[in-house]
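Collaborator request, handled under Task 6.
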Amino acid sequence: MELAPTGQLVITAEGDVFGPDSPENRDLARRIRACINACNGLTTEDLENGLIQDLCRTVMQVGPLLEAQNRKAGNRAA
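Structure tokens returned to the collaborator:
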């Protein structure tokens, strides 16, 4: 997503948005707030070192294994 070329967008630490009101800027501000909320408690260093990417890769690898295990357990219970 690119910032609309209509001017500068500023988002304060409190979540206030200043700048041109456009759908693109509203979407960008929403995405930034979601990222900040999702990363609450993680250090900047963790983020810079790829912690989120590592977690996503792990979930993508382990998720199907857990689903298969749950299906097997469900078949045994039936």
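The cover message to the collaborator said: "The longest strand covers residues 10-11. The mean pLDDT is 85. Please let us know whether this matches your experimental observations."
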